[in-house]
Amino acid sequence: MTQPSASATPLLFTPLKIHGLTLPNRVVLSPMCMYSAHNGLANEFHQVHLGQFALCGVGLIFTEATAVSPEGRISPEDLGLWDDSQILPLGRITDFAHAHGAVIGVQLAHAGRKASTHAPWRGRGVVPVEQGGWTVIGPDGQAFHELYPVPVAMTTDDIARVTADFAAAARRAEVAGFDVVEVHAAHGYLLHQFLSPLANSRTDSYGGSFENRVRLLLEVVRAVRGNWPSHKPLFVRLSATDWAPGGWDEFQTVELARLLRYEGVDALDISSGGLTPEQRITVGPAYQTPFAALIRREVPELAVMTVGMIDTPERAEGLLLNGDADLIALGRPLLGDPHWMWKAAVAMGVKPPVVPAYERGTRTTP
C-alpha cells in the first residue's frame, strides 16, 4: 500500500496502490445483495447493475455476496461461484468493467446458519424446502432467530469441504477476470459465526479460545490466498463488534488483523454487527469508522476500508484526511444515485471520472 504525496487533488479522487493493483480513486461500491440470480448465475440484471458503476467512475466495484457452495447462499436468488457454469456470466461483467477502465472484485461468502432465507421483499426468515430451501449448517445447532432455520453442527469434514469450496471459488474468480477477491467474514455469516462466542459453542479445535475461534477463517484465507494470483489483492470483510455483551469485539478484531497480515491479506473491510438479534447498535454518521481507525492505527501495514452512513463527499474526504481509513465503501448512496461520483467531483472542483461517451452529462456549460 502506498500513500500519495500532498497535492491539491482531494484524497477521495487520489489513486491508491494496494499490492499489485492501483485503484483510480478511494470510492468503493460496497457488496449489496440483489436477490436476482437463478441457480447462482449472473444475468442481464447484474450486467446492467454493476456495469453502470463502471461507467460512473467508482474506484472499485464489488459484487454482492457470492456463494462458494449452494448451501452457502443467503437466499435462493444469490450469485454463486460453486460451479464452472457460473464463470462465463460473471466474465461478461468483468470484461465490460475492464473495457471502460474499471476495477472489479468479487466477495466470496458462505451464509452458514443465516442461509436459506427469503429475499427481503418476499418475506422474512426460512425458505421451506418445498419452496426451494435447504438444510443449513453452522458451528453448532443454534439458530440465528426463531424465524430462521436450525443449523446442523458442522463436522470436521464439513469444515474441510467449506474451506475447499472457498479455494475453488477463488480459482473460478481468477478465470472470470476479477481483480480483487474479498472473503466475507462479517454480518453474522458462517466465518463470523465461528469467530463469535455467541454463535460458536464448539468444544473442539474450532471453538472456545480466541485461537480456536479464528482457526477456520485463517484456514480459509490461507486456502484462498494459495489459489488466488499472488499479485492480486485479497480483502477480508470483518464485523469489528457484535454490539452485544460477551461477543466478538474490536479488541479481538485488532488481534485477528495482526494474524491476517501474515496470511497475505492486503486490506480489511470493516463493518459491524449482524451476528445476533440481541445487538444494540449506536447508529449515526460514519458510526463504524472508529473501528476502522483503530485497526488502521494498530495494524498500519494493512489498507483499511470503512463503511456505514457516509453519505456526502465532504464526510468521506474528512475521514480520509483524518487518517481514519484508506478507502470509503458506499452502499445505499450509490444504489440511490449511481452518479454520486460525478456530483462529488463537481462539488470538490475536480473533473468527474466518467467515460468519454458520458462527458456531456457532466458539463455545466453549453
UniProtKB/TrEMBL annotation:
<keyword id="KW-0560">Oxidoreductase</keyword>
<dbReference type="InterPro" id="IPR001155">
    <property type="entry name" value="OxRdtase_FMN_N"/>
</dbReference>
<protein>
    <submittedName>
        <fullName>Oxidoreductase</fullName>
    </submittedName>
</protein>
<keyword id="KW-0288">FMN</keyword>
<feature type="domain" description="NADH:flavin oxidoreductase/NADH oxidase N-terminal">
    <location>
        <begin position="12"/>
        <end position="345"/>
    </location>
</feature>
<keyword id="KW-0521">NADP</keyword>
<dbReference type="Pfam" id="PF00724">
    <property type="entry name" value="Oxidored_FMN"/>
</dbReference>
<dbReference type="InterPro" id="IPR013785">
    <property type="entry name" value="Aldolase_TIM"/>
</dbReference>
<keyword id="KW-0285">Flavoprotein</keyword>
<dbReference type="InterPro" id="IPR044152">
    <property type="entry name" value="YqjM-like"/>
</dbReference>
